[in-house]
DNA sequence: ATGATTTTCGTCATTATGACGATATTTTCG
DNA sequence: CGAAAATATCGTCATAATGACGAAAATCAT
C-alpha cells in the first residue's frame, strides 16, 4: 500500500468506471502496472468491489433510516443472522457507545419502512431500538 | 425507469466495472442499447457516480464513527457548510426523529477521530452530539 | 556484490468503446 | 383508426482498451 496504490484507490473512489488505460495515463505509469496493482488490491481484499451511487432522482423513491439497537449480546450472532434475512437491511455495524448495533435500512415506501422497523424492533433479543428517518443528504463523499 | 433500467442498476450495483459489452450480453440486448440507457441514467441523475467498496484489509486502517447531532436549526445551513469543510466528514444527512443531523466520519487513527469528534461537538450551534464508533461491519449491501 | 524476488514495462491478439445511420417500436393527435 | 413524429433498438464502422506474457529494471537479502 504505497503512494501509487493510494492514488489508484482515490481515483477509482472518485469514478470506479475509469478505464485502466486512462488511469495509467493520469498516474503516468504503464497501463500494465496499474493492471497488476489493481489485481493485487482486489485479490488481497483491499478492494471489496465496485458499486454505484444513486442520485437524487433515484433516491426520491427510496426511504432510508438509521436504527440504533441495544441487544442481548449473548445472542448477537443470531440477531445479526436474522437481520441479514430482512431485505431492506443494507448495513449492520457493531459499535462501541451507548448502543450495540447500528443499522441502515432502505425501503420503497413509508409503509414498507414501517414494517421493517417493526420487525426489527420486535425481534427477540432486541432490548431497545431508536430510528432516524433520513430526510435529505447534505453530503456524500463516502469512499 | 422500466425493468431494463432497473436491471442495469442492479448489475452495476453489484459490479460497477462491468463492461457495456458484458452487461449487454447478460441482459440479451444490443450493446448500444445498454450504452444509450446508461447515458440517460447518468445524465438524468439517476446514477450519481461509481465508487469502490473497501474491504476489511483497507478498513483496518480506517476508524469510522456515526454521530448524532441536535443543532440550532436556524443556522443549519451554516453548520452544514462548516461540517463539509472537515476532511473526515463523509456523509451528512438531515433526519426526522430525536436528532437533526446524522454524520458519518472516517479517520486514519483514534487520535485523529477524536480530534474530529471534538471539532464537531464544539461547533457553534451544535446543542448536543453523541457518537458511536464502528467496531465491525457485519453486513454491507449498500446500493 | 550477486543471485533471488518483485515490480514495471512494452507488445501482441482479442475484445470493448464511441459514434452514427438504419430499422423497429411506441406515442401523439387529426 | 391510421399516419406522422418521436423514441428506442440495432448493426457496424474506426478507434481504444483489455488480458496475457516475456523482457528489462529495480529492490531486497545475505
From TrEMBL, chains A, B:
One GO term (biological process): response to amino acid
PROSITE patterns: HTH_ASNC_2 (PS50956)
InterPro entries the UniProt entry points to: AsnC-type_HTH_dom, Dimeric_a/b-barrel, Tscrpt_reg_AsnC-like, Tscrpt_reg_AsnC/Lrp_C, WH-like_DNA-bd_sf, WH_DNA-bd_sf
Listed GO CC annotations: cytosol
Name of the protein this chain belongs to: Transcriptional regulator, AsnC family
Keyword annotations of the record: DNA-binding, Transcription, Transcription regulation
Keyword Transcription regulation: yes
Residue span(s) of domain HTH asnC-type: 1-62
Higher taxonomy: Bacteria, Pseudomonadati, Pseudomonadota, Alphaproteobacteria, Rhodobacterales
PANTHER family: HTH-TYPE TRANSCRIPTIONAL REGULATOR LRPC, LEUCINE-RESPONSIVE REGULATORY PROTEIN
One MF annotation (Gene Ontology) recorded for this entry: sequence-specific DNA binding
Amino acid at each position: 500500500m504505497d503512494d501509487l496504490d493510494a492514488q489508484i484507490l482515490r481515483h477509482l473512489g472518485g469514478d470506479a468506471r475509469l478505464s485502466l488505460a486512462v488511469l495509467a495515463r493520469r498516474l503516468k505509469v504503464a497501463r500494465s502496472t496499474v493492471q497488476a496493482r489493481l489485481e493485487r488490491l482486489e485479490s488481497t481484499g483491499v478492494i471489496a468491489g465496485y458499486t454505484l451511487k444513486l442520485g437524487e432522482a433515484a433516491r426520491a423513491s427510496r426511504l432510508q433510516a438509521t436504527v440504533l439497537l441495544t441487544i442481548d449480546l449473548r445472542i448477537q450472532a443470531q440477531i445479526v443472522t436474522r437481520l441479514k434475512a430482512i431485505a431492506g437491511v443494507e448495513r449492520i455495524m457493531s459499535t462501541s457507545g451507548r448502543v450495540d448495533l447500528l443499522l441502515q435500512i432502505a425501503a420503497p415506501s413509508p409503509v414498507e419502512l414501517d414494517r421493517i422497523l417493526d420487525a426489527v424492533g420486535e425481534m427477540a433479543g432486541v432490548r431497545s431500538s431508536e430510528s432516524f428517518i433520513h430526510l435529505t443528504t447534505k453530503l456524500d463523499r463516502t469512499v
